[in-house]
Request: fold
Amino acid sequence: MSMDALYPFAGVALIVLGLEALIRHEHLMRKILALNITGSGVFLVIGAGARPAPDGSADPVAQALIITGIVVAIAATALALALMVRVADETGRAEIDAPRPGEDESSPGSADP
Reply:
């Protein structure tokens, strides 16, 4: 395997790992981290897929996309963390699809039939 193929494969592996964790875990913090891992994989794929400029320098469009994406990811992470804290304050837990404390799992409000 050449070094040129290593970065896109690593990016795809991060995307798959992040999506798997996003689906599997119920805790909101783990879901936020999974989204960050997925985003890092996307940035790696964009950077690896960028064609170098004719003079041999890196593609400035790909660099601008990645830098903008990082800034947006930081803002989205801060918003998600603030919402997670608010959900934890309101419900007493930072999980989704989990029964409330003292609530029976077989109750009508439960997610599992």
